[in-house]
From TrEMBL:
<feature type="binding site">
    <location>
        <begin position="27"/>
        <end position="31"/>
    </location>
    <ligand>
        <name>ATP</name>
    </ligand>
</feature>
<keyword id="KW-0547">Nucleotide-binding</keyword>
<dbReference type="GO" id="GO:1990424">
    <property type="term" value="F:protein arginine kinase activity"/>
</dbReference>
<protein>
    <recommendedName>
        <fullName>Protein-arginine kinase</fullName>
        <ecNumber>2.7.14.1</ecNumber>
    </recommendedName>
</protein>
<feature type="binding site">
    <location>
        <begin position="208"/>
        <end position="213"/>
    </location>
    <ligand>
        <name>ATP</name>
    </ligand>
</feature>
<keyword id="KW-0067">ATP-binding</keyword>
<dbReference type="InterPro" id="IPR023660">
    <property type="entry name" value="Arg_Kinase"/>
</dbReference>
<feature type="binding site">
    <location>
        <position position="92"/>
    </location>
    <ligand>
        <name>ATP</name>
    </ligand>
</feature>
<feature type="domain" description="Phosphagen kinase C-terminal">
    <location>
        <begin position="24"/>
        <end position="255"/>
    </location>
</feature>
<dbReference type="InterPro" id="IPR014746">
    <property type="entry name" value="Gln_synth/guanido_kin_cat_dom"/>
</dbReference>
<comment type="similarity">
    <text>Belongs to the ATP:guanido phosphotransferase family.</text>
</comment>
<dbReference type="InterPro" id="IPR022415">
    <property type="entry name" value="ATP-guanido_PTrfase_AS"/>
</dbReference>
<keyword id="KW-0021">Allosteric enzyme</keyword>
<dbReference type="InterPro" id="IPR000749">
    <property type="entry name" value="ATP-guanido_PTrfase"/>
</dbReference>
<comment type="function">
    <text>Catalyzes the specific phosphorylation of arginine residues in a large number of proteins. Is part of the bacterial stress response system. Protein arginine phosphorylation has a physiologically important role and is involved in the regulation of many critical cellular processes, such as protein homeostasis, motility, competence, and stringent and stress responses, by regulating gene expression and protein activity.</text>
</comment>
<keyword id="KW-0808">Transferase</keyword>
<dbReference type="Pfam" id="PF00217">
    <property type="entry name" value="ATP-gua_Ptrans"/>
</dbReference>
């Protein structure tokens, strides 16, 4: 596949397969950090060494077929325009750190985009498996399959006492970061999130925004992941996260039921106000669009809106980001131009949904 294939569609193919509890858990992600033995970490290595690592990735993994994920395509950051890299960040296929122009990076992508292997991010390789809904166990199994496949071709840095060695001490051990992206609007509306977030942090988990560390939790979307990897097995890490996510799902469902029973009229008003604004606005800032889309998705999941697909939130949350708006426009847009195009795109997408 070409670069254009990966950046032309907002919805990755894996996102179209709605997984368990997908009304609350939008996606599950498993990430494994791995480094080549006796080789400097990317954060201290020269650009020449970065190029060597990319060539290793190309020769050993690019165009090689995996039984589950098929053939992987290698894309070099140096060969991409700034906005093209931004689109891949918006689709969660690479991190903002990898798109940094100060070093040579790359990514290996599967055709359905459920697998991305970042090359020369903080570590030589960061294996990332993305699945729709609440599927941490499947994600871990698939990531381990890729890990074994790669380890058949490379020697990774590993010590018996410490486990896998990584550039960041918090990843030493299993090198595993497990996370879920959750839509928790009812807990936010009922003001329970302020109480819940500190409790989650005390359990050794971390809560971030939609684009990970340093990002804001826009549109009531929260990324919840483990914080430490040393001293725990992969199964223990996933079990700890799973137990918290199960409780959050139950609490969000209970909060939604309470809103329906005690504040149905107010919820209908909130949902349809947002729907009306999205349907008719001529300009729309990103932050407002994200919040309005969250309201509409909540209305769909609560049965207040019945003629629109719930996946529209997933699609428009990405489609209305600055990178995608500019990719479709074929030019760099000012903030005002992006706001106008965002409003137009949302109106047209909702109209198309209504007609279908």
């Amino acid at each position: 596949m070409s670069l254009q294939n990966f950046i032309s569609e907002a919805i990755s193919p894996w996102m179209k397969n709605e997984g368990p509890d997908a009304d609350i858990v939008l996606s599950s992600r498993i990430r494994l950090a791995r480094n080549i033995d006796n080789t400097p970490f990317p954060i201290t290595a020269s650009k020449e060494k970065h190029e060597e690592i990319i060539e290793i990735a190309r020769s050993k993994f690019s165009k090689h077929s995996h039984k589950r994920f098929g053939t992987l395509e290698l894309l070099k950051m140096d060969d991409m325009k700034k906005n093209e890299k931004r689109v891949l960040v918006e689709k969660h296929l690479i991190s903002p750190n990898l798109s940094d122009e100060s070093k040579a990076g790359a990514v290996l992508l599967s055709e359905d985009e459920s697998l991305s292997i970042m090359v020369n991010e903080e570590d030589h390789f960061r294996i990332q498996v993305l699945l729709s809904g609440f599927q941490l166990d499947h994600g871990l199994r698939y990531a381990n399959e890729i890990d074994d496949w790669m380890e058949d071709r490379l020697d990774f840095a590993f010590e018996e006492k410490r486990g896998y060695l990584t550039s960041c001490p918090t990843n030493v051990g299993t090198g595993l970061r497990a996370s879920v992206m959750m839509h928790l609007p009812a807990l936010v509306i009922t003001r329970q999130m302020n109480r819940i977030l500190p409790a989650i942090n005390q359990l050794g988990l971390v809560v971030r925004g939609i684009y990970g560390e340093g990002s804001e939790a826009l549109g009531n979307l929260f990324q919840i992941s483990n914080q430490m990897t040393l001293g725990k097995s992969e199964d223990d890490i996933v079990d700890d996260l799973r137990s918290v996510v199960v409780q959050l799902i139950q609490q969000e469902r209970a909060a939604r039921e309470t809103l329906l029973q005690q504040s149905k009229l107010q919820m209908e008003d909130r949902v349809y106000r947002s729907y009306g604004i999205l349907s008719y606005s001529r300009t729309m800032e990103s932050k407002e669009a994200t919040q309005r889309l969250s309201d509409v998705r909540l209305g769909i999941d609560m049965g207040l809106i019945t003629d629109i697909s719930g996946s529209i939130l997933n699609e428009l949350m990405i489609l209305t980001q600055p990178g995608f708006l500019q990719q479709y426009a074929g030019e760099i847009l000012s903030s005002e131009q992006r706001d106008q195009r965002r409003a137009t795109l949302i109106r047209e997408r909702l109209k198309l949904e209504e007609n279908n």
